[in-house]
Design brief:
By secondary structure, the protein is of the alpha/beta class. It is 22% helix and 37% strand. It has a 6-stranded mixed sheet with strand order 5-4-3-6-7-8. The protein has a 4-stranded antiparallel sheet with strand order 1-2-10-9. Helix 1 crosses helix 2. Bound molecules: xanthosine-5'-monophosphate (XMP) and magnesium ion. Xanthosine-5'-monophosphate binds next to strand 6, helix 3 and strand 9. Xanthosine-5'-monophosphate (XMP) binds next to strand 6, helix 3 and strand 9.
Amino acid sequence: MIKLHDKHFEPMLKNELIETEIQRMATQISQDYAGKTPLFIAILNGSFMFAAQLMKSLTIPAEITFLRVSSYQATSSTGKVLELLGLQESVENREVIVLEDIIDTGLTMEKIKEQLLAKNPSSFALASLFHKPEALKTPIEIDYLGFKIENKFVVGYGLDYDGLGRNLSDLYVLKEE
Ligand code: XMP
Ligand code: MG
């Protein structure tokens, strides 16, 4: 068991298991995109470790860039607005594959996808390392998925609790007190 800030977390998935799964995803993507040069767009901060591991296992030429999203409340009537920050590369006519750490409600990815599609990529796919099916609030198609997990808060392998835990090589789940 580990402690981050005030909370305790228990081991959930070992690094070896996570990386075996990422290898499988990379093999599948390499097959599906044979003869192409996709542009990977990794969503910061959480996906940095997943992105690094996946890229090392690809057997096709590929580019990677990083995107940060900021969400803020515009007005009470329009709800949350999400802005894509840091995307310099042209997405037009590219085979885009978005890399995300985890799809929870799916609301963040729904907005990211909408904004990327507006830039006219030739194709769009989503690869997510983790997914909490029970938390989903909008239909999101995950083309490449690592693990379906329970609807509980997790840290490690890039995911954080208030800034801590991203560097842990295994995945941990919040311990219920
Ligand atoms: P939605 O709900 O829009 O959110 O799919 C996706 C983002 O929420 C964060 N998230 C988590 N971060 N442990 C974390 O450290 C979790 O269990 C967790 N669930 C969601 C994450 O940043 C993701 O990009
Ligand atoms: Mg995140």
